[in-house]
Amino acid sequence: MLNKLIIDPSSKKSIFLLRDTLSNEICPIIKSGRPIIVLCIGTDRSTGDSLGPLVGDKLKFLIRDKIYLYGNLENPVHAKNLSQVLDEIKTKHINPFIIAIDACLGSLQNVGKIIVEGKPLSPGSAMNKDLPKVGDLSITGIVNISGAMEFMVLQNTRLFTVMELAETISKGLYHSIIKTIGGRKSTSIIENKLAENIEA
């Protein structure tokens, strides 16, 4: 099981570190034939909580055999529909491996960093919401400082921080899938552009 890994998106090696870490985790899953669910949690109605939908939007083209994506800007997965989405996943997929992605609040020194852990995350914990834990593997982006007035903190989070986190998470996850199972026979323009960006 993956221990807690903290990644700084400002590092030039961040995308490659995330790619290799995730690839090591999902390789045996792919070989076992289990479907992989990328579950992006959050809402576009709050800057600080928009990390999940932004990642989902950037990964819309990632869907392929045995890889499924839930949550993006158009159809976000949030507190009000999370349980319903989880029920849908259980109904449609046999023994899925869920990679859960969400924003969270943390200590000052970790703001803007990514935490990858081989355990579920607790959505809505910053807002004291009682939601089911989700994920076999979790990727959280620390968007701001935890403490009092969490709702206001999330609303006043810098979009730059969220976008930087979303960019690194989406590219790292995309390239982990490509490294593990390969790309489609005909890559799309978007995929080519993303590949060009990471190689630049």
Summarize the structure.
The protein has 200 residues and is an alpha/beta fold.
For the record, the CATH class is Alpha Beta
Strand segment count: 6
**What's the helix count?**
6
The biggest beta sheet is recorded as: 6 strands, mixed
- The oligomeric status of these chains comes to single chain
Helix content: 25-40%
Q: Strand-residue fraction?
A: 15-25%
> How many angstroms separate the termini?
33 Å
Rg over CA atoms, rounded to whole Å, is 16 Å
Tell me the domain tally.
1
Order of helices and strands: EHEHEHEEEHHH
CATH architecture: 3-Layer(aba) Sandwich
Average predicted local confidence, pLDDT: 87
Shape: globular
Low-confidence stretches: 185-196
Structural class label: alpha/beta
CATH-assigned fold name: Rossmann fold
Strand order, biggest sheet? 1-5-6-4-2-3
Instruction: Write the CATH homologous superfamily.
Output: HybD-like
Give an overview in words.
Keywords: Hydrolase, Protease. GO terms for molecular function: peptidase activity. InterPro entries: Pept_HybD-like_dom_sf, YyaC. Pfam families: DUF1256. It comes from Clostridium tanneri. With 200 residues, the chain is of the alpha/beta class. The protein has one domain (5-192): Rossmann fold (3-Layer(aba) Sandwich). The chain has 6 helices and 6 strands. It has helices spanning 14-32, 51-58, 82-92, 150-155, 159-181, 189-199, and strands spanning 5-7, 36-40, 67-70, 97-106, 114-117, 137-145. Strands 1-5-6-4-2-3 form a 6-stranded mixed sheet. Helix 2 (51-58) links the parallel strand 2 and strand 3. Helix 2 (51-58) crosses helix 5. Mean pLDDT is 87; it is low at 185-196.
